[in-house]
Amino acid sequence: MRKDTIAWTKKDLLGLEYLTKEEIELILDTAKSFKEVLSRPLRKVPALRGKTVANLFYEPSTRTRISFELAAKRLSADVINIEKESSSIKKGETLIDTGRNLEALKIDIIVVRHHSSGAPVMLSRAVNISVVNAGDGWHEHPTQGLLDIFTLREKIGNIDGLKVSIIGDISHSRVARSNIWGLNKLGAKVTICAPEKLIPIEAEKLGVRITNDVDDAIKNADAINVLRMQLERDSVSAFPSRMEYFKQFGITEERLKKAKKNIVVMHPGPINRGVEMSGDVADGANSVILDQVTNGIAVRMAVLYLVAHAKRK
Questions:
Q1: What was the pLDDT predicted at 1?
Q2: 6 φ, ψ to 5°?
Q3: Could you say which of 116, 189, 250, 309 would form a disulfide bridge with 246 (CB–CB 3.0 to 4.6 Å)?
């Protein structure tokens, strides 16, 4: 871990919009140190021994919840998983009441995923313990954005000046927003590409280039981050059919022939094969999708460590 860097002072991680370039780099540098831990025979350090992390998920999740759970356990924390269908939440308890009860139980960190944008911010104001946003509505998914940027830095190097195209369901994507905030602050040049109906109305204010032509988005990119079509949020209605979407926006080997030879292909998962990209691209030499999954543990270890040891102002 770099000793010449700034100290972490925030009790929470709520979104990349709220972080400085230096704070993002501190998380990435800390994650690099923790990734080394994951390669050891004994993949565990005592950094959070005696601390308790509660994963509070109001939406279904497999990848993110397991990644946070593993990250906490790799740091030697105790972990409690709370899901909506098996808790007092189903009986009508509010998010604030749940948070305050967890604080009374001496939980140290709440990791929360919620269907409402802004819910983690609201919770963080109601409790004195740390809150980490694991995805809120269409707002942000900061640890996914961080792990995507960490993977780019690992595979390519310096983010400053990097050309990154984010392709797919931008409108419904909290992942897209976190990537845009983080990449812009680190000096990348971001292009977003989607059907007209899946470009958010505030896109022009986000400091990105906008195109509806996927070949244009790919041709000069150093990396592409292909988003999931969020069918549960009715994004499919923005296009005649999944087959038609794949024909016009799907990433295929044929399309990648027009791209840079070493272009990095990313996807936050889960992948709809044959909708967002073909199977041979998902499993191909340019794909770093499984690296993203591994890096997610290191990034979340870094986040949990930093908020737990924050030097509060």
A1: 43
A2: -70, 160
A3: 250
Q: By three-state DSSP, how is residue 107 classified?
A: coil
Decide if 109 contacts 308 (C-beta within 8 A). Answer: yes
User: Is the pTM value of this prediction over 0.85?
Assistant: yes
CB atoms within 10 A of CB 63: 14
Asked if 38 contacts 67 with a C-beta cutoff of 8 angstroms, the reply is: no
Q: pLDDT tens across 151-165, in order?
A: 999 999 999 999 999
Type and span of the H or E element at 85: none
- Pair 97, 87: CB distance under 8 Å: no
CA distances from 145 to 44, 255, 270 (A): 24, 25, 15
Overall average pLDDT of the 123-136 stretch = 98
Angle at the Cα of 199 from the Cα atoms of 197 and 204, rounded to 5 degrees: 140
Q: Which two tokens stand for residue 298?
A: 């290191």
For 87, phi and psi rounded to 5 degrees? -145, 180
Distance CA 176, CA 114 (A): 17
Alpha-carbon gap, residue 11 to 279, rounded angstroms: 41
Query: Which uninterrupted H or E stretch holds 169?
Result: none
- Ordered by where they begin, the domains of the chain are 16-140+293-308 (3.40.50.1370), 142-292 (3.40.50.1370)
Distance, in Å, from the CA atom of 87 to the CA atom of 150, rounded to the nearest integer, reads 34
Amino acid at 220: N
Report the DSSP pairing between strands 209-211 and 109-114: unpaired
* Residues 136, 154: Cα–Cα separation, whole Å: 27
